[in-house]
C-alpha cells in the first residue's frame, strides 16, 4: 500500500514504489468481491487506485492504494471526492448503478466517458431502457410501466395469463417474478372465495418492495433459451467476444443457476442474437466500454431481456471468458477507459462453465435452513477440468431456496475442450458436494 504523509515536506513523503506523482490516478467505484479483479488489474497497469465503497469492510479495500468510504450511488459525494483527489480516470466494473455515477461525475469534471449520463440511465433503469430500445427498433417484449396498484391491475389486462413483474431499478433478479393467473387460481382451489385480484396485488407489492423509485414493469412472458452476450465497444464499434448459455431456476423466480460458453444454440439463432445485441449496444450510443446483454430466443426470434453498460458479473467476464476465449475483458474495459490499446483478440476456443451451489427445497416453503455439514469439497476441487470451487457460506450459516442471486451458497467453475465437456466437468464436481441442512 502506498501511504502519503502530506503534512511533511516533499522530500519526506513516503512511497513504496516509484513516484506516485508520475502515476495516473483512478477512482474505481465499488470495492466488493466483484470489483476486486479490476482493482488488481488497475494496479498491475501502474495506476494509483482509489477504491470507493459505502461498506467499510469491503474486501477490495486492502487491494487499493486508498479507500474512500463513499457510496457509489451518491454522485454528489463522488464528485466532491473527485474534485479533491483529482483522479485522471473514474470507472466502475460490474455493478449497474455506479455506471450512472461514473457517467455523471466524468461529465461534471469535463472528462471523457464511454457512455453519456442520459444513455447511462437507459442502461440502468429498466423502464427507460425498454423505451429507448423500442424507439431504436430493438426487439423487446410487450411491457408497461406502472406506478400504482390501480395502474398495475389495469395494465396487466392485455398481457395474458402469464406475465413478468419486475422493479425498474434493482438487480440480481431481486423482485423479478412470474405471475401466472391460472396457477394462482389453482392454488386457491378449494377455498370458498378465490380473490385473484388480491393474489395479483400480493405479487405487485412483492416487486414494488424491491423498487427504489417505486416504479414497476409488467412484461409479456418471453419463452425460449436465454443467453448473455459479452462485448467490448472500441471507437463506437461493438465487438462481440462470446455468447453464453444461461441456466435459470424454475418459475416463479428467475435466478441464474449456471452459465456455459460458448453457446450451443444454432448458427442462425446466434446470428439473430448478435444482431439484437449489436442494435441494443448502438442504441446506447456507446463510444467505448463493455456491455453485458441478456437475450431470450423466443419463437418470434431474439428479444432483449436487458443490457448493461458494464462487464458481466456472475464470474462470466472474470473467469469464464478468459478460460474459453483467452480474452481478458477486465483489461479491455480498463484499457478503453485509460486510452490504452484494447486487445480483444481471441487466443483460445474452448469451453467453460460455472454451476452455482444452492439449497433446493422440495417443499419450497421459503424458510431459512441452517447448514449442518459440508462434504466433498476436496473431491470436487480434484475433479478434472475444475478450476475453482468456492463456498460463500459455512456450517451454521442459513440458506433458503433461491429467490435472488444472494441466496446462492457457492459455485464450481470448470473448463473443457468445448462447452459440453466443461459442463460435464462442472456437473461432476457439483455432484460431489454434499450439504446437509436442518
Ligand atoms: N419479460 C420476460 N420474459 C421472460 N423472462 C424474463 C422477462 N424479464 C425477465 N425475465 C427473466 O428474469 C431474469 C431477471 O430479469 P432481469 O435481468 O430483468 O433482472 P435483474 O434483476 O437485472 O437480474 P440480473 O441482475 O440477475 O441479470 C432474466 O434473466 C430472465 O430470465
Ligand atoms: Mg438481468
How would you portray this structure in words?
It is a single chain. This protein is of the alpha+beta class and 438 residues long. Helices cover 30% and strands 26% of the residues. It is built from 13 helices and 19 strands. The chain has helices at 36-44, 75-85, 97-108, 117-122, 126-135, 149-155, 181-187, 196-208, 267-283, 316-325, 329-338, 377-381, 419-432; strands at 25-29, 48-53, 66-69, 89-92, 143-146, 162-167, 177-180, 216-220, 226-234, 237-248, 256-261, 289-298, 301-308, 351-357, 369-375, 386-391, 398-399, 410-416, 434-437. The protein has an 8-stranded antiparallel beta sheet. Helix 2 packs across helix 3 (97-108). The two termini are 44 Å apart. Mean pLDDT is 92; it is low at 1-15. The structure holds adenosine-5'-triphosphate (ATP) and magnesium ion.
How do the strands and helices of this protein lay out in sequence?
Elements: E1 25-29, H1 36-44, E2 48-53, E3 66-69, H2 75-85, E4 89-92, H3 97-108, H4 117-122, H5 126-135, E5 143-146, H6 149-155, E6 162-167, E7 177-180, H7 181-187, H8 196-208, E8 216-220, E9 226-234, E10 237-248, E11 256-261, H9 267-283, E12 289-298, E13 301-308, H10 316-325, H11 329-338, E14 351-357, E15 369-375, H12 377-381, E16 386-391, E17 398-399, E18 410-416, H13 419-432, E19 434-437
Parallel strand pairs: 1-2, 1-4, 2-3
Antiparallel strand pairs: 5-8, 6-7, 6-8, 9-10, 9-12, 10-11, 11-14, 12-13, 14-18, 15-17, 15-19, 16-18
Helix pairs in contact: 2-3
Magnesium ion (MG) binds at residues 294, 305-306.
Amino acid at each position: 500500500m502506498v501511504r502519503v504523509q502530506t503534512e511533511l515536506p516533499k522530500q519526506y513523503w513516503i512511497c513504496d514504489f516509484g513516484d506516485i506523482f508520475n502515476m495516473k490516478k483512478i477512482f474505481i467505484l465499488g470495492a466488493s468481491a466483484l470489483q476486486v479483479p479490476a482493482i488488481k488489474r488497475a494496479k498491475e497497469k501502474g495506476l494509483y487506485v482509489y477504491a470507493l465503497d459505502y461498506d467499510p469492510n469491503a474486501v477490495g479495500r486492502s487491494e487499493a492504494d486508498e479507500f474512500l468510504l463513499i457510496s457509489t450511488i451518491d454522485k454528489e459525494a463522488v464528485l466532491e471526492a473527485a474534485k479533491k483527489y483529482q483522479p485522471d480516470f473514474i470507472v466502475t466494473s460490474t455493478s449497474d448503478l455506479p455506471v450512472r455515477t461514473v457517467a455523471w461525475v466524468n461529465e461534471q469534471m469535463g472528462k471523457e466517458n464511454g457512455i453519456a449520463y442520459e444513455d447511462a440511465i437507459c442502461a440502468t433503469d429498466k423502464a427507460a431502457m425498454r423505451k429507448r430500445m423500442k424507439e431504436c427498433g430493438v426487439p423487446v417484449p410487450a411491457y408497461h410501466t406502472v406506478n400504482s396498484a390501480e395502474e398495475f391491475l389495469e395494465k396487466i389486462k392485455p398481457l395474458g395469463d402469464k406475465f413478468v413483474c419486475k422493479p425498474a431499478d434493482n438487480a440480481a433478479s431481486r423482485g423479478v417474478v412470474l405471475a401466472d393467473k391460472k396457477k394462482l387460481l389453482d392454488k386457491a382451489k378449494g377455498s370458498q372465495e378465490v380473490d385473484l385480484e388480491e393474489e395479483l396485488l400480493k405479487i405487485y407489492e412483492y416487486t414494488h418492495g424491491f423498487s427504489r423509485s417505486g416504479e414497476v414493469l409488467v412484461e409479456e412472458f418471453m419463452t425460449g433459451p436465454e443467453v448473455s452476450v459479452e462485448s467490448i465497444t472500441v471507437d463506437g464499434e461493438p465487438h462481440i467476444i462470446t455468447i453464453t448459455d444461461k441456466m435459470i431456476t424454475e418459475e416463479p423466480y428467475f435466478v441464474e443457476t449456471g452459465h456455459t460458453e460458448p453457446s450451443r444454440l444454432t448458427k442462425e439463432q446466434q446470428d439473430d442474437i448478435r444482431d439484437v445485441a449489436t442494435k441494443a449496444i448502438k442504441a446506447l450510443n456507446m463510444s467505448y466500454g463493455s456491455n453485458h446483454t441478456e437475450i431470450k430466443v423466443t419463437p418470434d426470434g431474439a428479444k432483449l431481456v436487458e443490457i448493461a453498460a458494464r462487464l458481466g458479473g456472475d464470474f462470466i467476464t472474470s473467469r469464464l471468458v478468459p478460460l474459453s476465449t483467452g480474452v481478458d475483458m477486465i483489461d479491455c474495459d480498463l484499457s478503453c477507459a485509460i486510452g490504452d490499446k484494447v486487445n480483444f483478440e481471441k487466443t483460445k476456443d474452448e469451453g467453460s462453465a460455472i454451476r452455482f451451489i444452492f439449497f433446493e427445497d422440495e417443499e419450497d416453503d421459503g424458510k431459512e435452513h441452517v447448514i449442518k455439514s459440508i462434504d466433498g469439497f476436496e473431491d470436487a476441487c480434484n475433479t478434472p477440468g475444475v478450476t475453482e470451487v468456492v463456498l460463500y457460506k459455512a456450517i451454521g450459516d442459513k440458506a433458503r431456496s433461491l429467490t435472488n442471486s444472494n441466496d446462492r451458497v457457492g459455485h464450481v467453475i470448470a473448463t473443457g475442450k468445448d462447452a459440453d465437456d466443461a459442463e460435464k466437468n462442472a456437473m461432476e464436481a457439483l455432484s460431489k458436494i454434499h450439504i446437509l441442512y436442518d
